[in-house]
Specification:
By secondary structure, the protein is of the alpha+beta class. 41% of the residues lie in helices and 32% in strands. It has a domain at 57-103. It has helices spanning 11-38, 40-54, and strands at 59-66, 70-79, 84-88, 92-97, 100-103. Strands 1, 2, 3, 4 and 5 form a five-stranded antiparallel sheet that branches. The longest helix is centred in the N-terminal third of the chain and has 28 residues, at 11-38.
Length: 104
């Protein structure tokens, strides 16, 4: 009887699948990061509102810009709007530090 040799397995098929999986994972990570970047203003607004609310501090503010490590707020009114404890009409810049959010 003749021995029938099986064709060798194609290694490139496995490598191609692995290559595609890596690119699909990288693409998914990029999409998630882009989604968070687009939603950064509502996320920051919610964070600031929650932090001030947990301390019982009534405040109003306007978010001007949000970067990687800083936020710019304007028209900040802390306390009762009729008789505020602090008013900042110009921009105030806050940056993240190891201890939390720090004004600059």
């Amino acid at each position: 009887m003749t021995d029938v040799e099986e064709p060798p397995r194609r290694k490139w098929h496995h490598r191609t699948l692995l290559f595609k999986k890596r690119w699909m994972t990288a693409g998914a990570v990029i999409v998630v990061i882009a989604g968070v970047w687009v939603a950064r203003e509502p996320i920051a607004d919610r964070f600031i509102t929650d932090q001030l609310g947990s301390r019982g501090v009534p405040a109003q503010y306007q978010i001007d810009a949000i970067g990687f490590r800083s936020e710019r707020l304007s028209n900040v009114v802390i306390g009762d709007p009729a008789n505020p404890d602090l008013t900042a009409k110009k921009r105030s810049k806050c940056c993240w530090a190891m201890a939390g959010l720090a004004p600059m």
